Amino acid sequence: MAEAAVDNEVWNEPAGEAVPKRKISSRTKLTGKEKAAIFILSLADEDVKKILDGMQEDEVRELTRTIARIGSTPQDVVRAVRQEFLDRFELQQFDVRGGMNKVKDMISKALGKEKARQFLKELQQGPKNTPWEILNAMEPTLVATFLSNEHPQSIALILSQLQVEQASYVVDYLISDVQQEVILRMAKLGSLPPGALEDIEESLLTELEALGATRGGYAKEGGGGVKKVAELLNMMSRDLSDKLLAYLDEEDNPLAEEVRKEMFLFEDLLLMDDKSFQTLLREVNNDELLSALKGTDDRLKEKFFQNMSERAAEMLREDLEMMGPVKVADVESAQQSILKAARRLEAEGAIVIMGKGTDDVVL
Fold first, then answer.
1. Where is the Flagellar motor switch protein FliG C-terminal domain (predicted)?
2. Angle (nearest 5°) at CA 321 between 318 and 322
3. pLDDT at 311 > cutoff 50
4. Are 315 and 286 in contact (CB under 8 A)?
5. Could you tell me if 170 and 286 lie in one domain?
């Protein structure tokens, strides 16, 4: 739609209901909000209801305000807006990868975090043979309660054997002082000699018998150390990981710096070369990208824009402009999802993230 001067006029309304309306013509340059309003107005009532039901209150308020200002719209403008919507839809990247991680994402959005964990338990089959399998399947709140009377060193050893995501949830439910001690001790854990965890395993199995555990197998050697703590902090909320890093700084600054070098934060995406960045973008869906970029600094936004087609970048800018407030937790969740994709691609050798860890890159 070519740019042109905008015609504005006040249309006749019943007394007390005068609304300044914008007269739309084929020469009018529409804003993103106006395009959304015109698209909504072109839909059947039942479809409009479904869309509005999925929007936040402030988004509905902004949309209805825009609709109230729009007068009669020519059919060629309506067709152009609907065509642009279809173009956006076709340009969107869809992640159709299956697996348990996808199941977790889907049911977490549909059921909420707590119900999703319970649902995932029902998907798991077969008996749990080791205490680590049992603890990984338990609610994190129960694991935290179960470990509450243990010494921080024992908790550090136990958590070092759990899946990173589960361990991060458990740490979140520990009291603040214990969190700090456990993270510090985990960071200092080195490789353990064979059999070092056997006594702990036997003791845990005895205490977990009520849950139907069966004996068999031993924990892997090691499991702690700087890398494990970095992975753990990456999974936590930014607020909690910052607090625990600050504590590590006070207790052992060189150790804290080692942990930082192993950590991978959303801002570190700036370190990626353009080819790697474009590979990552193909793995990210539009909704996650929008939430992740909400509130990020301009440098990182530009990094995304520069690695997209001009049209896709323009659409993303418009979507960000139209987007209402987003919960911090939702922003962090979206960023973590993108970081998980980046870590997976790096492990597969598909991308290179320069400047993190100890592996140097020769260009």
1. 248-353
2. 90
3. yes
4. no
5. no
